[in-house]
Amino acid sequence: MQVMTSDNKTRFAVSDLRGADPYKLATGLIVPRPIGWIGTVSAAGDANLAPYSFFNCVSGTPPTFVFAPARSMRRDTLDNVTEVGEFTINIVTAEVVEAMNATAASFEAGVDEFEAAGLTQVASTLIRPPMVGECKANIECVVTDIVEIGDPERGNGLVIGEAVAFHVDEALLDGTRVDQAELKAIGRHAGNTYSNATDLFDIERPA
Q1: Rounded distance, CA 200 to CA 205, Å?
Q2: What is the 3-state secondary structure (H, E, C) of 94-106?
Q3: pLDDT of residue 7
Q4: pLDDT by residue (tens digit) across 97-140?
Q5: Phi then psi for 171, rounded to 5 degrees?
Q6: Is the pLDDT of residue 2 over 90?
Q7: Residue 50: CB partners within 8 Å, gap ≥ 6?
Q8: Cα-Cα-Cα-Cα dihedral sign, residues 163, 169, 170, 176
Q9: Count of C-beta atoms within a 10 Å radius of residue 59
Q10: Domains of the chain in sequence order
Q11: Rounded to an integer, what distance in angstroms lies between the CA atom of residue 139 and that of residue 118?
């Protein structure tokens, strides 16, 4: 039920929402979201690549990342991390955004998205899943936990992974600091909308 409150905001009780409406509100308000372009491999050795905007960094020590593939869509990623326990994160920037979008298609199981999108598989150094050679940065991760979230059929699997290696273009680096303007990261919004993370400003933190 929609209710107009005294501060001119429409109130939605989640229990009253149906279909994709909760998803639309959540993904329309939590923006921009970073994109986890996740590379995995099956136990049989078949590579898979898919983007997820239910993704973020949640710890720096150790570097820990999460992403949450839906159980009802693109099952290969969730199956692969469950079986193999490893994945790569391939940073989405302006140079590769079209290729990233191409890998969001609903391919049949077993299709190599690297090949379908014209991307180069680069071998990781410590884990089995490959990295995207065209990306400015990649992260090798091992799975530490998978948490089942939400509806058993339409919910998500929250994959928690720890970084074991970073690969970063030298042109972006000052020591371990990454030049944000040169990175040209891409953010995910609602529907077909994305943003460039290049409109930057600084605010000094309070003492």
Answers
A1: 16
A2: HHHHHHHHHCCCC
A3: 81
A4: 999 999 998 877 778 899 999 999 999 999 999 999 999 999 99
A5: -65, -15
A6: no
A7: 37, 38, 69, 74, 76, 77, 103, 104, 113
A8: negative
A9: 12
A10: 34-196 (2.30.110.10)
A11: 20
